[in-house]
Amino acid sequence: MKDDIVSEYLKEQLEQLKDNSEGAVADYIPELAHADPEPLSVAFCTVDGQVYAQGLREGDVDLEFSIQSMSKPFAYALALEEHTLDHVAQFVGMEPSGEAFNELSLDGETKRPMNPMINAGAITVNQLINGEESSVEDRVEKILSFFSELAGRELHIDQPTCDSELQTSDRNLSLAHMLRSYGMIQDTAHDAVDSYVQQCSIMVTVSDLSKMAATLANGGTHPVTGKRVCSNEVALQVQSVMASAGMYNGAGRWMASVGLPAKSGVSGGIIGTLPGRLGIAAFSPKLNENGNSVRAKKVFQRLNKHMGLHLMATEKRGRVAVRSITTVEDEKADKGITTVIRLQGDIDFNAAEKIWRAIREHEFESNSVILDLDKVDEINSVGGRMIREFRDRMIAAGMDLTVVDSDGVLAQ
Ligand code: GLN
């Protein structure tokens, strides 16, 4: 079978949005004002490295555009990698501001920007990268090479986009002046904005973005190159802040209606992560009044509806973890009887808790027990800890316990 049902499905979703012409391209950055408003594309990257990318028209899928505010979570990840969370938290908070992306939104007491997803927070985060003493050039180089690792290919900065934003950066310059007056940044306002705007002008495709997002969803390991780009803790922190603040003043509505950690950019892209499963990106340049792409948002809403991607959706979990508890005759065993407990599927906290309950409630006919793990697919860390714990307790209680684990799923 050659049919690629995922790509066909994605293409169908884009077709449905073909005639939607709502919104307007961002015009405060001259280079974006000239952008072709028509492209529409979407990409998925699974945590095991499968990438599905589709465009509405020929060429849409390969189009490069500037990353803009979708750079913010990744710059935050780099700052966290270079420093500790405690250090970064002295300069930028993690509370949703509920305000537009270009509001100053500082904490009343500490004067820290509320979070790293708004411009004030992102300018501050940018300044933490490569240390206080860094030149703009070296800092930007660090960011570009980190983003390239996340995309799994060499990225570049689009100079015209960067120059044109710098011409119209009064708002960001004023934020930088304020931040400097509160001691949150050290560079001159001009250098700080220059460095931040270069970060926003890194060029990406939807496939790049889906891989960057999937790296976060995969706990920091790149799903295609296999390289560890950031730590698990950093990936968790970044996605947590994306979930509460990534969509600015629309963050609450986004969480309720789409239900994924996400980040949008004024070039027209939106990225989302489904932790442990997927990185998603959609792109179309026309924006709504909150500065989010109209059609990219609709793509996310459609996928959410059809594919059950909402983080809070309570789906019934797979099969029961205890496949069977039976007894067999065994002349060498205690009282000539052995109880065989067969487990199956994936064992996480909930599964392990159920197994333990089943064992506790079972009336054993003898002291001889076999715990058979041969039908278990995977055991996560808490599942493993719990199974080892009840193995040890059964032995301590005087049971003659044998664990059958031909594939070694139960790490020691
Ligand atoms: N470079 C843009 C700015 O700072 C990014 C804003 C965005 O994408 N929301 O204004």
Write down the overall geometry.
elongated
SSE run: HHEEEHHHHHHHEHHHEEEHEEHEHE
Mean pLDDT: 93
The beta-strand count equals 11
**Spatial strand sequence of the major β-sheet:** 2-1-7-6-5
What does the radius of gyration come to?
A: 26 Å
Bound molecules: glutamine
- How much of the sequence lies in strands comes to 15-25%
Low-confidence stretches: none
Helix content: 40-55%
Quick take:
The protein is an alpha+beta fold and 412 residues long. It has helices at residues 5-16, 30-33, 72-82, 85-89, 119-128, 136-151, 159-167, 170-181, 189-200, 206-217, 232-245, 251-257, 294-307, 349-361, 381-396; strands spanning 41-46, 51-55, 65-66, 203-204, 262-264, 269-274, 278-283, 322-329, 337-347, 368-379, 400-404. It binds glutamine.
Structure notes:
By secondary structure, the protein is an alpha+beta fold. It contains 15 helices and eleven strands. The protein has helices at 5-16, 30-33, 72-82, 85-89, 119-128, 136-151, 159-167, 170-181, 189-200, 206-217, 232-245, 251-257, 294-307, 349-361, 381-396, and strands at residues 41-46, 51-55, 65-66, 203-204, 262-264, 269-274, 278-283, 322-329, 337-347, 368-379, 400-404. The strands form three sheets. It has a five-stranded antiparallel beta sheet. Strands 8-9-10-11 form a four-stranded mixed beta sheet, with helices on one face. A two-stranded antiparallel sheet has the order 3-4. Strand 5 and strand 6 form a beta hairpin. Helix 5 (119-128) packs across helix 9 (189-200), helix 6 (136-151) packs parallel to helix 9 (189-200) and helix 14 packs parallel to helix 15 (381-396). The longest helix is centred in the middle third of the chain and has 16 residues, at 136-151. It binds glutamine. Residues 68-69, 101-102, 119, 165, 172, 200, 265-266, 291 line the site of glutamine. It catalyses: L-glutamine + H2O = L-glutamate + NH4(+). Belongs to the glutaminase family. This is Glutaminase.
